[in-house]
Design goal:
The longest helix is centred in the last third of the chain and has 28 residues. The chain contains four helices and two strands; from the N terminus they run E-H-H-H-E-H. The chain has one domain. It is mainly α and 114 residues long. Strands 1-2 form a two-stranded parallel ribbon. Helix 1 runs antiparallel to helix 3 and helix 3 packs antiparallel against helix 4. It starts with 19 loop residues before the first strand and ends with a helix. 35% of the residues are buried. The chain is elongated and about 85 Å long.
């Protein structure tokens, strides 16, 4: 007799798919960090010269979009998709960058003598 165990049938209906990380969550984090860096580190020159403000706003909007998409996918398929913390971090960074940019824009229009 052989010591090998017999082959067990593999049921594809009950098998678990491998857990994967959300690409949308990673994109949210990248765009949120880009918007954060553009609005915080170069906020005053960017608003004054009008160079960085569109980049910061665009990155913030994309970060919000990808973060919401990631959270929706993670919520629908909790066992197969991971990345909730990354998506929430991207959302927070995106919101902070857009709020900071709004504060700078309001301050610059307040200081405008015309």
């Amino acid at each position: 007799m052989s010591d090998r165990s017999p082959l067990v049938a593999y049921d594809t209906k009950t098998a678990q798919r491998p857990v994967r990380k959300s690409a949308a969550a990673a994109a949210s984090l990248v765009f949120g960090a880009l918007g954060f860096c553009c609005s915080y580190l170069t906020g005053i020159p960017g608003v004054v010269f009008g160079i960085v403000a569109p980049v910061s706003l665009g990155a913030g909007i994309l970060g919000l979009f990808f973060g919401i998409v990631a959270l929706a996918r993670i919520g629908n398929d909790q066992r197969q998709v991971r990345g909730w913390t990354v998506a929430v971090t991207g959302l927070i960074l995106s919101c902070m960058s857009m709020l900071w940019l709004l504060v700078f824009l309001l301050r610059c229009t307040e200081l405008d003598p015309h």
